[in-house]
Target: Cytochrome c-type protein
Amino acid sequence: MADAKGKSRRLILLIVFIFVAGIGFAGLFNASLSATNEMEFCVSCHTMETNYLEYQDSLHFKNPSGVQATCADCHVPKAFLPKIATKVIAAKDVYHEIMGTIDTPEKFEEHRWAMASRVWKKMERSDSRECRTCHEFKNMDLSEQGRSARSRHARAEDKGQTCIECHQGVVHEMPREPRVKDDG
Model:
């Protein structure tokens, strides 16, 4: 009988330990996700300096309304599973920074077209999900936009276009397309 009580207590202690450890893990995991979404983290790699300077020249950084979109607002989904997938994929950028593939502004520029193209394709696949957090067609007051923007946004909505189809290079400068080598 005493042995059964001892096993029961150990089981309860084990369950309590697993529960507390789970809460601790969840807290640390959430804290690390939050920390890696901070602007300071994003621009801590010196190859991001150019991107940060371009961003500071954009309306996403400074504008009449005072609303600022940060790196994570545009590059990290809000929903949990897409956020985790994005973080896992972004780990390769950290890897390439550490391994020296993109650790200088020159090397970064050499790979910039390919990296930007991957981001654009991801945005097309997600229907510019992160853009639409702030820029949803149904929330636009087209009458307040210039004539060109008003007609283009109306057409884009009718065609079911996504933001990135027209707005590449809005925050970051357009990268140079790699030159095709002429074998002739």
Notes: The helical segments are 2-35, 39-42, 49-56, 71-75, 80-99, 105-125, 147-159. The mean pLDDT is 90. The first helix runs from residue 2 to 35.
